[in-house]
Amino acid sequence: MAEKAISSAALTELESASGMTLAIMGGMSRWSFWAHVALRLRIALALLLGTIPAQAASQAVLYGWLVVDWGDAPGESVVALSLHTQEGEMVSLRLDDAQLGALPALRNRLVMVQGEWQGGAGLFAPADGGEFLATSIQPFSGGEQTFSLSAGAPLESDATTDVLGSKPWVTLLCKFSDVAAEPKPASYFQGMYSSSYPGLDHYWREQSYDLANIAGSASVARWYALPQPRSYYVYNMDSDPELEFDRTRAINDCTAATNPDVYFPSFIGINMMFNADLDGYAWGGSRYLTLDGVTRLWNVTWEPPWGYSDLHVIAHEMGHGFGLPHSAWNPAVVYDNRWDVMSDGWTDCNNSRNPTYGCLPQSTIAYHKDRLGWIGSRQVVVSPGALATITLEQLDLPQGGNPLMVRIPIGGSPTNFYTLEARRKVGYDVKLPGQGVIIHKVDTNQSIPALLVDADNNGNTGDAGAVWTPGEIFSDNVNGIQVRVDGSTATGYTVSVSNQAGAIPNPQLTKKLYLALLRTP
Ligand SMILES: [Zn+2]
After folding, report:
1. Rounded to the nearest whole angstrom, what is the distance from the C-alpha of residue 70 to the centroid of ligand 1?
2. Looking at domain 8-144, which CATH architecture does it have?
3. pLDDT averaged over the chain?
4. Which of 10, 25, 127, 302 has the highest Cβ tally under 10 A?
């Protein structure tokens, strides 16, 4: 008996043969009952005849929008992937780390996912969505022609990562039905969005050089009770012994409870504040929702009380909401880059505290700002063969029009490059552990694209090893890249950069010479 490993093509044949739509979706409500029965019978027959190995029969192809949520706990980080199917179901995706790299580019995009259902669910999703082991995720273009979307489903897949213009958020205050506490008053949350220092509108304007703001952001005026106790939202959702936070239940009930007083289409983001711990994490990401008759993507955060008692945590989660990933020195540690609000917001809190809003955020790094469209032409690219001298302006509160970032493509690569940025203790960067030129090695195909370069590799990103000051040279001999900090200006540094153009002439005495090989291919 000839066995045939079932492939997506084979599935498509089966489906076409039974006169149905191309894709197997997360649910089956669109399918007519009889067509569904016909497919079931065909597959049962195929299994019976042995033309499909039973073990592989749960393979499937799903289409939907890829949703990426970042979970942050002290010392622990998770990235949760879900597929929002056109039926409105959220399917948890599991995939191996090697595939994570493609995800930043695919976040919020319409994708085709191949793989198999977990837990013996067979060809069809379990009613509650279930978990799907993905073997490949690819952008799905031209999807509008090949599968018809149900009414009201989001039609566009927005590929841009830019965050420009007015981006108002709404804060929802939601209480578990069995927890009475109201940890902070509504006025605290309204004040958090202030346009004066250290409010979040002030912060994001400063980060974006006024290219983006969150003006119009607002908090609801009181806490709202959720219909269910905490145990309905925080429970064991999978096979491990730990409790998970059901972010879908939480956002559905929290938006429903507050909806009489909130017109959601006025906002691009939703910050949900809860009155007790969640699963140990604060979460930031996105969701496709239908609210007040509008179906689209909202940026979303889910915050436990510790998430809103220090402002840098909210800034970090909103950063995820805007699509920013983490940076790190050691990608296994994640929260160890003291130069980035998207990594270590805790270590330098004593440098920047507010009596009301606690530990304040430092800036995010130049690579992240560039991703959001905030650097643009204010960067210099030093391509292979070039030798350049550049005056870098401080990344926070720049004065005048000098460049904010240098990009050094490794071997001319568009996805692998070094970045240089000048960091000084001004504005929100008063929090920084020092000042000087900071170097990151970026691989845009990694889930943590930017890794801080630290000359002494001792794990302390706030010491002299991570900061290049006048007279110091960074050298990547393998790739023929050299950077020398020539001197300082009132608000920045001059640097010379050689990209495969030989040694920088007249090198000054160096106290650091570092061969950078943080990540081997
Ligand atoms: Zn995070």
Report:
1. 5
2. Beta Barrel (2.40)
3. 82
4. 302
Instruction: Give residue 310 CA to ligand 1 midpoint distance, Å.
Output: 14
Express each pLDDT in 52-73 by its tens digit. Answer: 444 444 678 888 888 888 899 9
Distance 303 CA to ligand 1 centre (A): 12
CA distance 334 to 329: 7
ipTM reported for the complex surpasses 0.90: yes
Distance 152 CA to ligand 1 centre (A): 31
Q: Which residues contact 321 (CB under 8 A, 6 or more apart)?
A: 169, 269, 284, 285, 286, 299, 300, 301
Dihedral pair phi/psi, residue 278, rounded to 5°: -95, -115
Give the other-Cβ count within 10 Å of 218's Cβ.
15
**What's the gap in Å between 235 CA and the centre of ligand 1?**
22
In the reported structure, the alpha carbon of residue 322 is separated from the centroid of ligand 1 by a whole-number distance in angstroms of: 12
For the packed helices 311-321 and 200-208, what is the interaxial angle rounded to 10 degrees?
A: 50
Find the 115 Cα to ligand 1 centroid distance in Å. Answer: 27
37 Ramachandran zone, left/alpha/beta (phi>0; psi -120 to 50): alpha
Separation of 396 CA from ligand 1 center, angstroms?
A: 21
Beta-strand runs (E) in 382-477:
386-393, 405-409, 416-423, 436-443, 450-452, 473-476
Domain ranges of the chain: 8-144, 165-323, 350-499
- Among the residue ranges 5-9, 121-125, 129-133, 267-271, the one predicted with the least confidence is 5-9
Q: What is the pLDDT of residues 447-462, one digit of tens each?
A: 899 999 999 989 899 9
Round to whole Å and give the CA distance between 338 and 340.
6
Distance CA 396, CA 424 (A): 7
Q: How far apart are the CA of 311 and the centre of ligand 1, in A?
A: 14
Question: What's the CA-to-centroid distance between 216 and ligand 1, angstroms?
Answer: 25
How high is the pLDDT of residue 241? 86
Q: How far is the CA of 321 from the centre of ligand 1 (A)?
A: 10
Which pLDDT tens digit goes with each residue over 326-382? 999 999 999 999 999 999 999 999 999 999 999 999 999 999 999 999 999 999 999
